Task: inverse folding
């Protein structure tokens, strides 16, 4: 007979080097998302503590917003989640888009 065991960890070491649990994650009604809070949420998903769907429902996030946090964290760690870093990346992409000539594809 097969038994189901919940394999989700109860606690993990977070991106700031501290142990955290589901209860120590940011509150559901969080509106001010600082880099450390974003990092905790990303770590909760990557550790298997929560699913992306659970995070989206709990914090009223779109998949795109969570994915952008995850991408920023992968690229630059916690500092990549700071608003200034996001704004700098956007400005750089805009500059690159303006400097890249538009190529027309013949019909």
Result:
């Amino acid at each position: 007979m097969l038994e189901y065991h919940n394999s989700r960890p109860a606690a993990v070491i977070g991106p700031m080097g501290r142990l955290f649990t589901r209860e120590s994650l940011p509150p559901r009604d969080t509106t001010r998302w600082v880099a450390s809070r974003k990092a905790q949420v990303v770590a909760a998903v990557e550790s298997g503590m929560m699913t992306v769907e659970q995070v989206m429902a709990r914090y009223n996030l779109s998949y795109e917003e969570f994915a952008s946090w995850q991408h920023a964290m992968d690229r630059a760690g916690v500092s990549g989640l700071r608003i200034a870093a996001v704004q700098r990346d956007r400005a750089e992409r805009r500059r690159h888009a303006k400097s890249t000539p538009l190529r027309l594809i013949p019909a």
